Every structure is written in C-alpha cells, then in structure tokens.
UniProtKB/TrEMBL annotation:
It comes from Alteromonas gilva. This is Helix-turn-helix transcriptional regulator. It comes from the Bacteria. Pfam families: HTH_26. PROSITE patterns: HTH_CROC1.
Length: 70
C-alpha cells in the first residue's frame, strides 16, 4: 500500500465561500498556479505559499494537506 498527498483546497474554499480569484488576490499567486494546486497536479508547494494560503483561509497546514492511502 502506498501513500499520496491530497490537497483539500476545494473543500476549504467552499467552506469559506471564497473564489479562486479572491484567493489568488489575497495570496498573491497566479490563478493558474492555484488551479494546479487545487486539482492535485502540483508536485511541490513552498512553505511561504502554504503559510499565505493558511493566512488567507484562516486554517492550519493540516487542513490543506492530507496523507492518503492509495
């Protein structure tokens, strides 16, 4: 059994009623990069980006990133 990393950005944005455009403006990264992260296609994330997302979404890193069995 292997493990993967799941990004829960969709769920948190929905809970906060925040659009991709609004989050992009608050965090200061492009919508294209946010979309890549949101769809789980990103291979890495900078800690500074993760911190900015947590600040904008008022959450903890573990709310965004989750380890999952595959």
């Amino acid at each position: 059994m292997s493990k993967t990393i799941k990004i829960n950005l969709d769920m948190i944005m929905l809970q906060r009623k925040m659009s991709l455009t609004e989050l992009s403006d608050k965090v200061g990264i492009t919508m294209a990069n946010l979309s890549t992260l949101k769809t789980g296609k990103a291979k890495a994330i900078r800690f500074s980006t993760l911190l900015a997302l947590c600040d904008a979404l008022d959450c903890e890193p573990g709310d965004i990133i989750q380890r999952e069995d595959t």
